[in-house]
Amino acid sequence: MATLTLRKGDAGSLICLLAAKWSKIAPEVAYGDKLLLELEDGTIHFQSTPIAKFLSQKKGSAFQMIPKKAGDELDSIMIFAEKMMASPELVPAFLAAIEGKFMGEFLLGEFCLADVVVFALVKTFTPDLSAHPTLTAWYTTVLEMVKDDVAAFDKPAKEVYEMSPNAETPVYITTPIYYVNGEPHIGHVYTTLLADIATRYYKMKGTAGAYLLTGNDEHGQKVQQTAEAKGMTPKAMCDEISETFKDCFKVFNLQYDRFIRTTDDDHIHAAQTLWKKLADAGLIYKGEHDGWYCVSDETFVPDSSLGIRTLPDGTEERYSLESGHPCIAIKEVNYMFKLSEYGDRLAEYYEANPDVIVPEFRRKEIIKFLRGGLKDLSLSRPMSRISWAVPVPGDEEHGMYVWIDALTNYLTGAGYPDKLDTNKLWPATMHVLGKDIARFHCVYWPAFLLGAGLELPHKLVVHGWWTKDGMKISKSLGNAFDPYEAATRYGLDPLRFFLCRESNSSIDGDFSHNAMVDRLNIDLANDLGNLVNRVVSTALNPGRVVPAAGDVPEAEELIAALNALPGTVDHHMGEVNIQGALVAIWEVIGQTNAFIQDAEPWKLKAADQQARKEAIMYVATEAVRIVGTLLLPVMPETMARLLNEQLNVPAELMRVDLLKFAQLESGRALGDNTDILFDKLVDRQAAIRAGLVINDKVDDTSTCRRKAIAAEQVACKHYIYRKREKGLVNIEGTLDLTVTASECKVVLSISGNRTKKEEPSRFENLSVDGGLVVELNEEYPEGAAVAPKKAKKAAKQEGPSKKELKRQARAARKAKEAALAEEMAKVDVEEKKE
Ligand code: MSP
Question: Which parts of the sequence are annotated with region: Disordered (predicted)?
Answer without folding.
Answer: 784-834
